[in-house]
Write a structure and sequence with these properties.
By secondary structure, the protein is mostly beta strands. 3% of the residues lie in helices and 49% in strands. Belongs to the glycosyl hydrolase 43 family.
Amino acid sequence: MKPVRAVLLLSFLTLALSGTARAQDNSRTLLMQWLADPDVYKEHDDLFFLTGTGNGVVLPLYESNDLTAFRFKRDYNPSAADPAYDYCFLWAPDLSKVGSVYQLHFSGHRVPNGAACPPAGQEVTTFVATAPDLNLNFGAPQPINANTTWPRTTTGTACLPQGCNRNIRIDSATFNDGVDRWLFYVWFQNGNNISSFKLAAPGTVYNHAGPAVFATPSYEEGINEAPELFKRDGRYYMVFSGGWYNSQYAMYYVMADTVPELTRARAVRRLSLPLKNSAGRLVQSHGHNVIVERRGEYFNVFHQGAFDSAGNLTSRSTYKQRVAFKPDGAMTSLNQVSVRWNRLAGYSYSLDVVLKNGSVVGPCTSVTLLGQANKTVFDGVCRSAGDRVVTKGEIAAFRIFYSNNNVWGPFVEKAYDGISDDVTLELPGGVTPFVDLEWSEEETTAQYSIDVQRRDTGAWIGPCIGVGAVNKSLAWTYQGRCDTPGINVPLSNIQAFRICSAVNGDWAHARCGAAAYDGRAMHSRINIP
């Protein structure tokens, strides 16, 4: 039942957003309709090139001077460029530069000129073409590492004798780490998998993700593909997509200190979540992205899938959205916000979102869905408002209404910057029921434990939550009890949290990081030096 609402005026917090919160454009913007699997090559801060999957016959190329308005440059038709072969089902191109030469890797099928394409008994593979200058007039495609035992272009359906991870199938991505140039690609076995090799040393293959090598959760549907590599502040990132393109498609990533460490042995973090309506049908998906930096700001360029009322994919188009970074290097999510509020005894809650245009979507998440809960994850769908889709960049503020008699008048509002992953609202007279702790990831094999410092005595209780419970997790919800010693330590009596990490059980040489706590906050992020 939709709560009865009194007539409400916009609060001063909403009006205040005309300053700081609106200073940066965090909106999601359409770059190219009907274009999927986008890749952006940056020549410099005022010249970018965009390509992606188009009609399957040609690969379109666009250019831009501001990473916002793109104009058509040319199509690349490999069948026209190669007098000996025809190509079809072209997708997932990658633009890069080696010295003064431009390269275009792409996935597709190849047959003799005039033959049916694709033929029976052929699997998709990857080719590369080159262009001498920024006219991007690419020549005939060439196979990769032909006539070798290295990872290579192969049109047959069988795995190579050296292993399935030597078949360069789809979604190639080049990356220069400053010392070596790498080629990442997807191969098939029990689903889609990601591997790489150094172009100067192709004999060694590094496996990064996928069900043939790593355990993957069911919602990824056996698909790990579309690798994207970048480096920031000394950290390496590998972003990839999971799920079928017409199903649970979403973006994930791992971070590490070196390229070979970018594997699922590290923490796998969500970058996006596919949207579903109140009936559980798909509304929107996101994936196959590239991270682009311009003048110190980072942007996620990705394709967005649209679905009809029955949950069937109808189109994919390329969008851009700004991404920010947390103190430990983690990226802000494309479409998730953890909204928390303190507890009033006997009260229930309802959530509205205030948009930057001054309108209010309410209830976005009604009391029927929230009840007496004190947190929710806003994922972009207001299921209590006709499944309206609202992107993070449209939001100016969150409102929590609270009631103990189903009369909905009082509320608290918190301004929102359009990009953060966490918002906490303080209800007058409320108490803090929990605190969500998050911390930085250390070595690949590190395990963690949680200590608390008492406010009354200054003494540390360590561990409060031991390694047997925390293990390799990077987050924990503390609700007032130290499970390891079996004692209660209420949040009001905690003045600091400490996270310790150790490798191979060597807690004598643990490394720890601490953060002060005020007894009321519902979220704390801790960095381990």
